[in-house]
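debug: dumping io for the single-chain case to check the tokenizer round-trip. Nothing else runs in this session.
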Amino acid sequence: MADEPLPTPRGTATLSDRERAEAMRSESLWRRAHEIVTRHSHLDAGDVYHALRALEPDPAARLRRGLSRGRLRAYARPPRGGRTSTHERRAGWSRGSI
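debug: decoded output
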């Protein structure tokens, strides 16, 4: 097994038009992220790239995605009334804090 060569990545010749367009878009965003980081050295290029990707969908789609994630994380919110658990107290939540 150790003597087997590693698989080579696919070249652009084997990509479909859609895949090629996506690769070009990704490369463009990475270049933009690195341009931003050269002006703001305290930033990380990967974080900037991720932020640029997150801004691609239209605002309504971003809002819809954010709201659905908020509903999925309902377990992380403090209870509405009732007792506060040890975990919630450590997180700084108290009855009526929200």
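debug: round-trip ok. The two ends are 57 Å apart (CA to CA).
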